[in-house]
Amino acid sequence: MNNLEMSDKAKPLLAAVIKHICDNVDPISKEYFALGEGRADRWR
User: 3-state class of 40 per DSSP?
Assistant: First the structure.
Protein backbone atom coordinates (compact mmCIF):
# COMPACT_ATOMS: atom_id res chain seq x y z
CA MET A 1 0.00 0.00 0.00
CA ASN A 2 0.96 3.64 -0.24
CA ASN A 3 2.70 5.32 2.67
CA LEU A 4 0.60 8.42 3.39
CA GLU A 5 2.57 9.48 6.45
CA MET A 6 3.78 13.08 6.46
CA SER A 7 7.46 13.36 5.58
CA ASP A 8 9.95 14.54 8.19
CA LYS A 9 10.70 17.50 5.92
CA ALA A 10 7.04 18.65 6.00
CA LYS A 11 6.48 18.27 9.76
CA PRO A 12 8.08 21.62 10.70
CA LEU A 13 5.83 23.36 8.15
CA LEU A 14 2.73 21.80 9.70
CA ALA A 15 3.94 22.87 13.15
CA ALA A 16 4.41 26.44 11.89
CA VAL A 17 0.90 26.51 10.39
CA ILE A 18 -0.64 25.19 13.61
CA LYS A 19 1.29 27.80 15.62
CA HIS A 20 0.10 30.58 13.28
CA ILE A 21 -3.52 29.47 13.66
CA CYS A 22 -3.24 29.31 17.45
CA ASP A 23 -1.41 32.64 17.76
CA ASN A 24 -3.16 34.74 15.10
CA VAL A 25 -6.41 33.20 13.90
CA ASP A 26 -8.05 31.72 17.00
CA PRO A 27 -7.81 34.90 19.09
CA ILE A 28 -9.80 36.95 16.56
CA SER A 29 -12.26 34.27 15.39
CA LYS A 30 -14.87 35.14 18.00
CA GLU A 31 -14.66 38.84 17.08
CA TYR A 32 -14.86 38.03 13.36
CA PHE A 33 -18.03 35.95 13.69
CA ALA A 34 -19.59 38.54 16.01
CA LEU A 35 -19.28 41.25 13.34
CA GLY A 36 -22.22 39.90 11.34
CA GLU A 37 -24.25 38.71 14.30
CA GLY A 38 -27.83 39.91 14.37
CA ARG A 39 -27.96 40.97 10.72
CA ALA A 40 -30.91 39.80 8.67
CA ASP A 41 -28.63 39.25 5.66
CA ARG A 42 -25.20 38.05 6.73
CA TRP A 43 -23.70 39.13 3.38
CA ARG A 44 -24.50 42.83 3.77
Answer: coil
